[in-house]
Amino acid sequence: MSAAFAVLTAGLVVFHRAVPNSVGRLGSLLEVFLPWLGLAVVVLLGVALSRRSVTALVALLLPAAAWTYLFGGLLLPGGKPGAYDLVVVQHNVSDENPDPAGTARALLDAEPDLIALQELVPPALPVYERTLAPAYPYHAVRGTVGLWSKHPLTGVRLLDVRPRGVTGPWSRGLRAVVHTPRGEAAAYVAHLPSVRVRASGLASSWRDESAGLLGKAVAAEEVRAVILLGDLNGTVDDRGLAPLTSRMNVAERGFAFSFPAAFPLARIDQVMARSATVGHIRTLPATGSDHLPVAAGITLH
Question: Model's pTM, two decimal places?
Answer without folding.
Answer: 0.94
